[in-house]
# Entry
Amino acid sequence: MTLLTLKTIEDRLFTAGAKTIHVEHFFRTWVSMKMFNDQSLNYPKLVKEEINQLLDEMNNSAQIIQEEKDGEDSSKLIVRLQDGEIIESVLLPRGGLCVSCQVGCAVGCVFCMTGKSGLVRQLTDFEIVSQLRLARQIRPISKVVFMGMGEPSHNRRNVLSAIDFMAKFSGIGYKNLVLSTVGDRRLFNELEQRTIKPALAISLHTTSDEKRKELLPNAERIPVIEIMDFASRYAKNTHYPIQYQWTLIRGLNDDDQELDRLEKLWLGQFAIMNMIPVNSVEGSSYVRPDSDRLSVIEDKLRQIGVLLKYRESAAQNVNGGCGQLRARYQAQKDEANG
Ligand code: SF4
# Structure
């Protein structure tokens, strides 16, 4: 089965006789959920026919099959792709959307349900952008974070293509397109060379290189100091703060030594630290620190000038963090199929 990409759509429109202005108008209209008006730009007849055919295929490529609400502000969307694979997107408060970039993930973070399934396949740039269009069927979206299923640096080309598409056609600026990564030198090099850059989130989780091997077994082995040096340079160049992510696990990365090392590494950082007490995954022994320990960490980090936010993982109340709703959906499906 051939999956749709942004390039295929563009090529098919050009082959039918479209000019650049038609292609751009079509993309802008589609991703903004506006009614397509072929009168305004005098579309050639063959292009109109191709667009009708394409719209059918685009609609069939990604469909919401389930929405689980978490109060007024957030909900998880289960999206079925053309080949039957399932991904998750999450509607976040204040117009945010968290998108997936892979089916499954190869990094294998010990606290993550998605990591347990390994990598199933990459999403195309079109499938990534489609999640924005689908979310806009439900409500306006003004910020997109690439923190759903998958590691963006492992699908770098399609993720950057989707980011460029969103920045060009969706009305969302680069500052509100947040690329999240566990750290990858090829991604860092590419980001440094681009003139227009998205905001960056780094999944750090510990200041110890050794513990990183344990927590993120298949992430590229880059010393923490190198990751944070890059992040500091990037934040200064872009003028957007880095958003560090740290999943807090009792007895593993919530100790005083971590906080002491973080104090030293934080010098010169233009950044926010998001700490997320671990959300227990089925069969896992990892537990979150108790509330007293969370208060101690908060006090210590504030004293040393770390701008800290405690968060729950996206849509925590609708079956937990990344990958868990998909896992439950798959289990139900397998059960139904006997
Ligand atoms: S937390 Fe992110 S990088 Fe780690 S396994 Fe899950 S999806 Fe992959």
